[in-house]
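User: DUF47 domain-containing protein, Streptomyces incanus:
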Amino acid sequence: MRFRLTPRETSFYDMFAASADNIVTGSKLLMELLGADTPVRVEIAERMRAAEHAGDDATHAIFHQLNSSFITPFDREDIYSLASSLDDIMDFMEEAVDLVVLYNVEELPKGVDQQIEVLARAAELTAEAMPNLRTMDNLTEYWIEVNRLENQADQIHRKLLAHLFSGKYDAIEVLKLKQIVDVLEEAADAFEHVANTVETIAVKES
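Assistant: Predicted structure for DUF47 domain-containing protein:
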C-alpha cells in the first residue's frame, strides 16, 4: 500500500461497512418476498422502504463527511462513486419489491428466484469486502466473484425475457413482469459497479 505522511479520516470505512450491511438486509427481504402472499408482501415492502431510507441516510452521511473532510482515505471521486453505487443497489431492490406489490403480481416467473439468489450472494460478498478497504487486503477474489455473478445474472435475465415473450403471458402481464426483472438486473449491474470501483481504489492504493 502507498505510504502516507498525513493522517486519514477513518470513519468512511465504518460508513461503507454499515451501508453494505444494510444491503444484506435488503437482499434478505427480497428472499422473503419469494412465495409470500399479498398481505405479507405489503409488510415486506414497508420494511424494504425503511431499509432504503436507512440506505439514503448512510449515503448522505458519507457525502457530508466527504464535504467536511480535508483528508480522505482515498480519492474523493472514488468515495463518491462507491457511496452512490451502494445507494443504487438499495434503490433498485426497493423498487423491485414495490413494483411486485403495486402491480399485484400473483406469481413471479421461474427464474426470478435465481436473480434474487445472485443478488443475495453479491450482497454477502460486498458486506464482507467493505471492512477490507482499511488494508486493501483480500479484495481481488471479491471483485472477480462479483463480476462472475453479474455475468450469471445477465444469463438469467436473458432466459427470463425469452420466457416472458414465449406467449405464455398476455401483453399487460409481460410489461409488468419485464419491468420487475429488468430492475433486478439493474441491481446486479450496480453490484458490479461497486466491485469495479473497489478494484479502481485498490489499484490506485497499491
